[in-house]
């Protein structure tokens, strides 16, 4: 069905981000004294620079829309039972998150600087070597020029690491072939890629590019933070430091645990929990198509992630604190307890 | 690498029949059966999708409401003011 389009769409997103990113890199300077103004220069002076920057920034949002949908498809239809493909997919998710994080620091706006400061400081929770580790990552004693230059380099490099990971992801997928909404073996029912999937993927590309360009030209700042229109200033802290929307659910989980190391572990495990889903699969059926109890739990997970996304963008005040805590417990409870229980009940 | 046509599965005793595209309608009963089918598909999933979404919405509105209330002054705190 249509939800199988997100794999090829992710490939398109990667190519779009690399192309727009390479062009941005031709005029960007990764020094704190010129970084922010080089982005302004790209926007105002470079031919179609504004469009390239638009597509790159909003392209990141579409990347995450596609990756969350791809994961959702995988969870709903039990595609995670292709364990190698799934686990490489989790690695790809982590790589995409790392790329997006360092990429957001690059424009050196207020939120770039302060978001970078908050998240890199989390590494100080590592026992014994925490502070040394943070300063090693920073290349100094705070987020400064050393951090910016290397983060730009990491951002450029990681894009191609993702490309490599994608090849391995597809290598394993092609060993088994794709799953399907019925969750049944389809070896006896194959059709050629062209014209069926070539045209299906092309339609998906057209719809996604339509969405991306619409967002880019009609409402380019819809999901952005206005703080990033101000150059990064270590002497002025924004009142509400928050990441882009695609990280808010993790940010909500991080802040729900009133302990630095605990919060960091919660954030880490909110992604790594995906790696145990296959081990906890209890149902005799592969997907949720004929499993109403677990379907309800799936949609509860979707609602919970939306709540956690909302909470991640709210100040840490009542009643947002308790909602975030309940949401975090529910998130892990669904993966580790409720969904396996649902499968067992349905059996 | 991977699976190849001719090496996927062996299926015997399956007979398929087909009619030429020129002998049939392109979109038969598209609205007369399609619209009732949409309703059937909606009915079969609405009670699994809607409750979590409704709960989410209620949590969102309740949370914002309680937060707004918390920012207001409590008149009882100022009763003894002159």
How would you describe this protein?
The complex is a heterodimer of chains A (347) and B (82). Chain A is an all-alpha fold and 347 residues long. Chain A has two domains: 2-241, Cytochrome Bc1 Complex, Chain C; 247-346, no CATH class. Chain A is built from twelve helices and no strands. Chain A is globular, with a radius of gyration of 21 Å. Chain A starts with 5 loop residues before the first helix and ends with a helix. The mean pLDDT of chain A is 96. The model of chain B has no long low-confidence stretch (mean pLDDT 92). Chain B is elongated, with a radius of gyration of 31 Å. Helices cover 46% and strands 0% of the residues of chain B. The longest helix of chain B is centred in the middle third of the chain and has 38 residues, at 34-71. Chain B is built from one helix and no strands. By secondary structure, chain B is mainly alpha-helical. The chains are: A mainly alpha (347), B mainly alpha (82). Chain A: Heme b b562 binds at residues 56, 155. Chain A: The chain crosses the membrane at residues 6-26, 60-80, 86-106, 118-139, 151-173, 202-223, 261-281, 293-314, 320-345. Chain A: Keywords: Electron transport, Heme, Iron, Membrane, Metal-binding, Mitochondrion, Mitochondrion inner membrane, Respiratory chain, Transmembrane, Transmembrane helix, Transport, Ubiquinone. Chain A: Residues 183-347 form the Cytochrome b/b6 C-terminal region profile domain. Chain A: GO terms for molecular function: metal ion binding; oxidoreductase activity; quinol-cytochrome-c reductase activity.
CATH superfamily of the largest domain in chain A: Cytochrome Bc1 Complex, Chain C
Indicate the low-confidence ranges of chain B by residue numbers. none
Largest sheet of chain B, described in full? none
Give the terminus-to-terminus CA distance of chain B. 87 Å
Number of domains of chain A: 2
Residue fraction in strands of chain A: under 5%
Which protein chains make the most extensive interface, counting residues with beta carbons within 8 Å of the other chain's beta carbons?
Answer: A-B, 25 and 22 residues
Taking the sheet with the most strands of chain A, its summary is:
none
The number of helices of chain A is 12
Rg of chain A, nearest Å: 21 Å
CATH class of the largest domain in chain A: Mainly Alpha
Cofactor (chain A): heme b; heme
Keywords (chain A): Electron transport, Heme, Iron, Membrane, Metal-binding, Mitochondrion, Mitochondrion inner membrane, Respiratory chain, Transmembrane, Transmembrane helix, Transport, Ubiquinone
Protein name (chain A): Cytochrome b
Subcellular location (chain A): Mitochondrion inner membrane
């Amino acid at each position: 069905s249509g939800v199988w389009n997100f794999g090829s769409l992710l490939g398109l997103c990667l190519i779009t981000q690399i192309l727009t990113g390479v062009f941005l890199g031709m005029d960007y300077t990764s020094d704190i004294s010129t970084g922010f103004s080089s982005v302004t220069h790209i926007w105002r002076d470079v031919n179609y620079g504004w469009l390239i920057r638009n597509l790159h920034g909003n392209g990141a949002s579409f990347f995450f829309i596609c990756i969350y949908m791809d994961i959702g498809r995988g969870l709903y239809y039990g595609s995670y039972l292709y364990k190698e493909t799934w686990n490489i997919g989790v690695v790809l998710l982590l790589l995409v998150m790392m790329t997006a994080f360092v990429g957001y620091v690059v424009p050196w706006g207020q939120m770039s600087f302060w978001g970078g400061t908050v998240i890199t400081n989390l590494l100080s929770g590592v026992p014994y070597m925490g502070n040394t580790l943070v300063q090693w990552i920073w290349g100094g004693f705070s987020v400064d020029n050393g951090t910016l230059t290397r983060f730009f380099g990491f951002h450029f490099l990681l894009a191609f690491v993702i490309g490599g990971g994608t090849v391995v992801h597809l290598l394993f997928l092609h060993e088994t072939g794709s799953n399907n909404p019925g969750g049944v073996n389809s070896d006896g029912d194959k059709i050629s890629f062209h014209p069926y999937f070539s045209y299906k993927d092309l339609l998906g590309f057209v719809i996604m590019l339509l969405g991306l360009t619409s967002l880019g030209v009609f409402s380019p700042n819809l999901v952005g933070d206005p703080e990033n229109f101000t150059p990064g200033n270590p002497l002025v802290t924004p009142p509400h430091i928050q990441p882009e929307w695609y990280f808010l659910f993790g940010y909500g989980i991080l802040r729900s645990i009133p302990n630095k190391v605990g919060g960091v572990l919660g954030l880490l495990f909110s992604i790594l929990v995906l790696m145990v889903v296959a081990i906890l699969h209890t149902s005799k059926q592969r997907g949720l198509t004929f499993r109403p109890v677990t379907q309800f739990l799936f949609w509860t997970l979707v609602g919970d992630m939306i709540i956690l996304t909302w909470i991640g963008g709210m100040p840490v005040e009542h009643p947002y604190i308790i909602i975030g805590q309940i949401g975090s417990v529910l998130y892990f409870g669904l993966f580790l307890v409720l969904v396996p229980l649902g499968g067992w009940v349905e059996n | 690498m991977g699976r190849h046509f001719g090496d996927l599965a062996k299926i015997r005793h399956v007979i398929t029949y087909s009619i030429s595209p020129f002998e049939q309608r392109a979109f038969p009963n598209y609205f007369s059966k399609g619209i009732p089918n949409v309703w059937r598909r909606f009915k079969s999933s609405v009670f699994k999708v809607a409750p979590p979404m409704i709960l989410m919405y209620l949590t969102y509105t309740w949370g914002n409401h309680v937060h707004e209330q918390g920012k207001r002054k409590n008149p009882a705190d100022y009763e003894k003011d002159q």
